[in-house]
Specification:
By secondary structure, the chain is α/β, with parallel strands linked by helices. It contains twelve helices and 15 strands. It has an eight-stranded parallel barrel with strand order 3-4-5-6-7-8-9-10, surrounded by six helices. A five-stranded mixed β-sheet has the order 11-12-13-14-15. β5 (82-85), α3 (93-96) and β6 form a beta-alpha-beta unit. α6 (158-175) runs parallel beside α7. It is globular, with a radius of gyration of 20 Å. 49% of the residues are buried.
């Protein structure tokens, strides 16, 4: 059991009417999985998550065409704290700023557009939007999309690249005199989430942290992965807001929030779940789905992958199932086998090598063949 140590107290920041950090209660948040342009569905899910106890609800925007929908969603969700995920298009920040309470940017996505403009200049633009519209900012660093400059500088040490990218962006905020920000450092491996957040908390004890195990996957395994990281961090007072990223159909999306509150409650009461051998065999990573998912069959596909590979449970194989083109290509590279889903086909990969595109109703047959091949290759290697 983890013993609670000296309380880590960050600065307190405002996100709309919400106070985060500085000894405030840990906030549970979640993200809409509906298409943002489907206003009625997104409004309904925002209220669904808020009723379950989400202190912050996040919505993703891909482009400027979705801004009118966001404006209407905001009009129908007054009183709920809204965050917007800028994805790969930080330039829309000024358009969305009037309609949300927080913007989230990924440092690893800033280099994609306006390549002649420096990263500090782009961050300065985001801070100017935040100041103009009274917004908070989340600096969200993800394992599968760390900025190339940091991957090059810390070649072979992705964890250091993750942490140093976050620290550098905090220093940019410091230089700009902006302190209304929170940081997240996410990985699909709970052990790496633990280590990254511990390192960052030691370097920047003043900065509020959002905790997440990205692409934790289907319950119950996704809940166990999340608990492995969250229980230890929260017990050490590391973490001011959390999200449990589960692959769930829309009608069950609020379960992310329910599980999050249960984890917080269990830690406060000293109840910890010990799973010493978890992750020693088959590991299925799948994203929690969001508005970027281009085919609703993604969630069903993730469930089918789990079912048809159950026979390989004792083999140390990682399979990643991703729902979109934004995170799919990069965040399947480290998996033994990766599937990332497009509108009509699924891209199947072995590590970073593409095996081909397959129809949703055909990819499972090829996946099983590749799993069998992996098992055979490793058995042969063990015999030699």
């Amino acid at each position: 059991m983890e013993q609670a140590g000296t309380r880590r107290t960050t600065r307190r920041i405002a996100i709309g009417a919400l106070k985060l950090g500085g000894g405030s209660p840990v906030v549970v948040q979640s993200m809409c999985a509906t298409r943002t342009v489907d206003i009625d569905q997104t409004v309904a899910q925002t209220h669904q998550l808020a009723r379950a106890g989400a202190g912050i609800v996040r919505i993703a925007l891909d482009n400027e065409k979705e801004v009118p929908a966001l404006k209407e969603i905001r009009a129908q969700t007054r009183g709920i704290v809204l965050s917007v995920d800028l994805q790969e298009n930080y330039r829309i920040a000024g358009k969305v700023g009037p309609h949300v309470d927080k913007i989230r940017y990924n440092p690893g996505h800033l280099h994609h557009i306006e390549k002649s403009k420096s990263i500090p200049a782009k961050v300065r633009g985001l801070v100017e939007v935040a100041r103009e519209h009274n917004l908070a900012i989340r600096i969200g660093v993800n394992c599968g999309s760390v900025a190339p400059a940091f991957l090059e500088k810390y070649a072979g040490d992705q964890l250091s690249a993750l942490v140093e990218s976050a620290v550098w962006h905090c220093e940019l905020m410091d230089e700009l005199g902006f302190d209304r920000f929170v940081v997240s450092l996410k990985d699909s491996d709970p052990a790496k989430v633990l280590e990254a957040n511990r390192r960052f908390a030691a370097r920047r004890p003043d900065v509020p942290l959002h905790l997440g195990v990205t692409e934790a996957g289907l319950p119950p395994d996704g809940i166990i992965k999340t608990r492995i990281a969250f229980e230890k961090l929260l017990a050490q007072h590391v973490g001011d807001t959390i999200r449990v990223s589960l692959t769930l159909p829309n009608e069950r999306k609020h379960e992310e929030v329910t599980v999050g509150h249960q984890i917080i409650k269990d830690v406060e009461r000293g109840r910890f779940i010990s799973v010493p051998d978890f992750g020693a065999g088959l590991n299925i990573i799948s994203c929690p789905s969001c508005s970027r998912v281009e085919n609703e069959k993604f969630v069903e596909l993730a469930q089918q992958v789990k079912e048809i590979t159950a026979y390989a449970a004792r083999h140390r194989i990682t399979i990643a199932v991703m729902g979109c083109r934004v995170n799919g290509p990069g965040e399947t590279d480290d998996a033994d086998l990766g599937l990332w889903c497009g509108p009509t086909t699924v891209n199947l990969k072995k590590k970073d090598h593409k095996l081909g595109n397959f129809r949703y109703d055909a990819v499972l047959t090829r996946l099983r063949a590749e799993v069998d091949k992996l098992i055979a290759e490793r058995s042969a290697a063990a015999d030699n």
